[in-house]
């Protein structure tokens, strides 16, 4: 007898036939370069229980739907509507994942809370995360990503936020979106499609009648001070004329501190105690301004991804809080399209403030990094590592090495090699 939709509940949904385990449901998605329907046979060979497809593939245990991506969204929407949780939607050009993790850490100390895993934040990944992992928690904390205008609106229609959070709007993926104006228009859709909104007061473009604000220069929730004492960071928040102090272990960057402030604001908006207990054990995600003691100085791994704005934030942190000499090991920023040369030139101006720059020319866009303080550049990772080990680093190194580039550059592999150096 053919499989029915009701038979699929309790099974894991998978979109990569290579990752199918016995009992999984394979969803065939037609992409720009690969058509999942070509791998239905492989999925069943790996033990798939059923397949969701858009056309007849000749297998009995298949369910044919008009659009497999929309099917995932509607199934996830049905699951969420059954439990009626409060939904927090989070987007921005930078810091979405870290903010989601920090908000979840705070709220889960007091109430049952769900967050989408890792960076499963797209029209495919977010529904998959709900279908496979949501178990009726009372609050959903959902990171929502945008590549083109309309992505956020689509996600908000599936999972309508009670509170939409817009962290910032910058140049990330401008080559895909077409312009920074388009990026803002798309990100602002989280405000337009939410009951309430919490947005960045420091960005004058973000103003609306249903908005509440977080920021450093004003707003409802203000980060008024941040101090690092060598082992912990003391944050001072202002709200309704009162000051609140929180001491958190380790080094908290300004973006991380603002993420904690967002959590403070959300807790207030949904009337939950702001409990920073879990933040005592919070560790930044790998490649997001990870501070390592290195010889007598520091190595900072900020290689998870890169945009002009995130570079600017990282360099400001280094200039304000880390000792000289300050060196940056950098690579290209990707997905900037026709704006690539412009933003790499702007990056070059930022890098002029440092004592030296090493450029890893693995991706062609990095050719436009042209600051006057470049001390070495190469497209060969072994040459970069050799230069760092033999010319820059010694047993008495007491400055900082800052690593940053887009993920495609794979600068993280060089970081691992350098961290393994024996002093």
UniProtKB/TrEMBL annotation:
The lineage of its organism: Bacteria, Thermotogati, Thermotogota, Thermotogae, Thermotogales. Keywords: ATP-binding, Cell cycle, Cell division, Cell shape, Cell wall biogenesis/degradation, Cytoplasm, Ligase, Nucleotide-binding, Peptidoglycan synthesis. PANTHER family: UDP-N-ACETYLMURAMOYL-TRIPEPTIDE--D-ALANYL-D-ALANINE LIGASE. Pathway: Cell wall biogenesis; peptidoglycan biosynthesis. Residues 14-70 form the Mur ligase N-terminal catalytic domain. Gene3D superfamilies: Mur ligase, C-terminal domain, Mur-like, catalytic domain, MurE/MurF, N-terminal domain. GO terms for biological process: cell division; cell wall organization; peptidoglycan biosynthetic process; regulation of cell shape. It is found in: Cytoplasm. Residues 90-220 form the Mur ligase central domain. It catalyses: D-alanyl-D-alanine + UDP-N-acetyl-alpha-D-muramoyl-L-alanyl-gamma-D-glutamyl-meso-2,6-diaminopimelate + ATP = UDP-N-acetyl-alpha-D-muramoyl-L-alanyl-gamma-D-glutamyl-meso-2,6-diaminopimeloyl-D-alanyl-D-alanine + ADP + phosphate + H(+). It comes from Fervidobacterium nodosum (strain ATCC 35602 / DSM 5306 / Rt17-B1). This is UDP-N-acetylmuramoyl-tripeptide--D-alanyl-D-alanine ligase. InterPro entries: Mur-like_cat_sf (IPR036565), Mur_ligase_C (IPR004101), Mur_ligase_C_dom_sf (IPR036615), Mur_ligase_cen (IPR013221), Mur_ligase_N (IPR000713), MurCDEF_CellWall_CoF430Synth (IPR051046), MurE/MurF_N (IPR035911), UDP-N-AcMur_synth (IPR005863).
């Amino acid at each position: 007898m053919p499989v029915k939709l009701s038979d699929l509940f309790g099974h894991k949904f998978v979109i990569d036939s290579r990752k199918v385990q016995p009992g999984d449901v394979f969803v065939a998605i037609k992409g720009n370069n690969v058509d999942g329907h070509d791998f239905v046979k492989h999925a069943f060979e790996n033990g798939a229980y059923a397949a969701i497809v858009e056309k007849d593939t000749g297998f009995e245990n298949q369910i044919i739907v008009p659009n497999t991506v929309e099917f995932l969204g509607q199934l996830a929407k049905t699951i969420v509507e059954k439990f009626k949780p409060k939904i927090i939607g989070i987007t921005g050009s930078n810091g979405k994942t870290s903010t989601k993790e920090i908000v979840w850490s705070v709220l889960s100390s007091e109430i049952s809370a769900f967050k989408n895993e890792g960076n499963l934040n797209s029209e495919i990944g977010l529904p998959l995360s709900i279908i496979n992992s949501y178990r009726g928690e009372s609050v959903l904390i959902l990171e929502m990503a945008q590549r083109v205008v309309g992505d956020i609106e689509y996600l908000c229609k599936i999972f309508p936020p009670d509170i939409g959070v817009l962290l910032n709007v910058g140049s990330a993926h401008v080559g895909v979106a077409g312009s920074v104006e388009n990026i803002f228009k798309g990100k602002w859709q989280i405000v337009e499609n939410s009951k309430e909104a919490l947005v960045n007061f420091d960005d004058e473009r973000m103003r609306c009648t249903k908005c509440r604000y977080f920021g450093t220069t004003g707003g409802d929730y203000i980060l008024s001070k941040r101090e690092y004492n060598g082992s912990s960071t003391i944050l001072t928040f202002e709200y309704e004329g009162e000051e609140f102090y929180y001491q958190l272990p380790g080094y908290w960057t300004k973006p991380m501190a603002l993420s904690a402030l967002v959590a403070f604001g959300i807790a207030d908006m949904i009337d939950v105690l702001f409990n920073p207990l879990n933040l005592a054990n919070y560790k930044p995600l790998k490649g997001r301004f990870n501070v390592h003691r290195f010889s007598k100085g520091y190595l900072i791994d900020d290689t998870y991804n890169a945009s002009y704005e995130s570079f600017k934030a990282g360099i400001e942190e280094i200039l304000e809080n880390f000792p000289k000499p300050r060196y940056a090991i950098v690579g290209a920023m990707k997905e900037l399209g026709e704006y690539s040369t412009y933003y790499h030139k702007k990056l070059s101006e930022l890098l002029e403030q440092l004592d030296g720059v090493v450029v890893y020319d693995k991706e062609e866009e990095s050719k436009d990094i042209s600051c006057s303080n470049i001390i070495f550049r190469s497209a060969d990772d072994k040459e970069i590592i050799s230069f760092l080990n033999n010319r820059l680093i010694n047993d008495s190194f007491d400055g900082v090495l800052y690593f940053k580039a887009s993920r495609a550059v794979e600068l993280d592999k060089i970081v691992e090699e350098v961290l393994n150096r024996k002093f």
